[in-house]
Amino acid sequence: MKTVPSKMSNIKPAGAKSVGDRVRERRTALGLSQPQLAKKVGGITYQAIQQLEAGGGTKHLVGIARALGVTAEWLQDGHGPAPSRAASAPRAGGSEKLKVLGMAECGPDGWSLWNGDVIDMIDRPASLNGVPGAFAVYAVGASMEPRYYQGELIMIHPGKPLTVGAFVLVQRRPRHDGEPPRAVIKRLVKRTGTKVVLEQFNPPKTFEIKTADIVSIHRVVGSGEV
Prior knowledge:
Layout lengths: L18 H11 L4 H8 L4 H8 L7 H8 L3 H6 L20 E8 L6 E11 L12 E4 L14 E5 L9 E6 L9 E10 L3 E7 L2 E7 L3 E11 L2
Parallel strand pairs: 1-3
Antiparallel strand pairs: 1-2, 2-6, 3-4, 4-9, 5-6, 5-9, 6-7, 7-8
């Protein structure tokens, strides 16, 4: 008599690791944040990593496996050669970590929603050692390409003088009370007592913001990967 497999045999035993579990564990072992892993994979957003780790689809599994230095088979079911253990990236001279604050794309011309949440902690670059209030953000959108690319890490120095030609992070007051501010990274063209003129590169454009509508404006002092 032919034996019919029980449907129960397809059910994962309690405590069994999922694809998302193995991705998260390997990413953590390598000292990578979700945005950093997404950048290594290329062509995907950190939300795709976030969804996968939460139990979502595995559309980009091959690229993610390559970026993590493992096989897709190992991520899928734990079979195949296990990855070697990797230590997290060392801290730079034991210095205090730098906060990466969150922004999310919300409109044209690179406008983002500023939620102010800490989404990552990175080694503080030497240029920001001892700088109170310094932070970083991940570039959102393509409005400043080829100067800054989506997903690139942007360093912000809140005490650095603002000069014409400098790149700046501008926070604009929300349209309605209770909403988060909107933010952009642009190039400072002109600043008066009543307005700020900003420039973007993609597509080329300048525009004005009334000083009364600005929550803060800080200088960009560097960028790159960590």
